[in-house]
Please model this.
Amino acid sequence: MKINYFLLFLLAIPLFINAQTYENDRLLTVRSKDSVNEKPRMKGALGVNMKLNGYFDVYGGLQNSETFNIGQIPVFGTDDSSIFKMDLHQTQIFIQGDFIQKNGENIKAVVEFDFWGGSGHMRLRKAYVETNHWQIGQNWNNFGDEAIWPNVMEWEGPPSGVWARTPHIKYFGNFKNENWIYEASLEAPVIDYIALGDIEPLVEEDNQVAPDLTTALKYKRDWGHLRFSSVLRNVRYKLDGETNDFLGFGFTFSGIYVTENKNNFQFQLVGGKGINAYLTSIAGLGYDGYPTSNGDINSTPSYGGWASYEYFFTPKFHSNIVFGFTEYFFDNMERFILSEELPNDPIDDTLILNGDYSGEHYYGIFNLMYEPFERMTLGLELDYGVKKIDFSGFANNTFIDDSKNRDAMRISFGFMFYL
Model:
């Protein structure tokens, strides 16, 4: 109820402020009468990014996932029943304000939320203040590249995508050359740890005591940009009730190239150790580190990448193709428990000691999109993915060396409308 009153208050702002609205603005844009350097000193906007998320799962065990998350495919599962669903939980509402100081410096503030907090509940996406050199608050993590995103209907994205949003303090500048931009930030550590799904080592979450440090360098031109970034982090887990920590580090290389008729190519490569909390398909699973047979916790090596190409047949009709993959490894692991019984395995509860475990995720998408009028996009999409695991080790003095894979297919559809 309080949220409804708040929105009514925002819609009533024009009745109390002497302002103007403009044709290309969002749902509501207001400007003050006083100005600095011929720009309104204060400007505020309320906008809505409405999205209908519809999907039909052909097979693959992702019936309960609103997004096409390859990492959630149950490789030992057998439920291939189809399901049809639609929702608007991915709809976003944002409020933005700009204030120009007397010296000409602009201060921007943004608050954005959606309804993806579970059962249609609201969830905070962004809340930050930005000046000419500082950004403080919650926004896209600086390790990722917020300017790239494949134009797809399903909103999980490729399995190696880096699109975390975290509270941070970021400083940025351009070396007095607008083509070169540098960024550095202290990011809140990612601690969305849950019990592992496919494996279950004797590891628990512990309190984190240090922020993640990121740096980035971006080369920007009219055709797009290239960007290199890095992250350094200290990760703490509990092993048998005792705190253990290790260093994680990673690198990304990304970019976008856009032609005059809006055709574009995007890509991102990522690699490192102890950075799985940042990778889309395995974030939040506690995969950053694992216990070894030596009694230590090692950081988990992982790497991946994705690429997309968007082609405009006409100004209103376009298509996208996307490919992506992720791989990660647990070598010389002290123990792990396969979450489901292996077919034809003589051991009911498969506890594997002194073994190796690795995972691979592959992702492919093809879609067709049509824009019947300005700010409206209709889309139909075919999503396909494969999850594969390899494992080996001793279970009750019996050596097991096996692998398991499962694929999934989904038809996604819907619309996106911007106000």
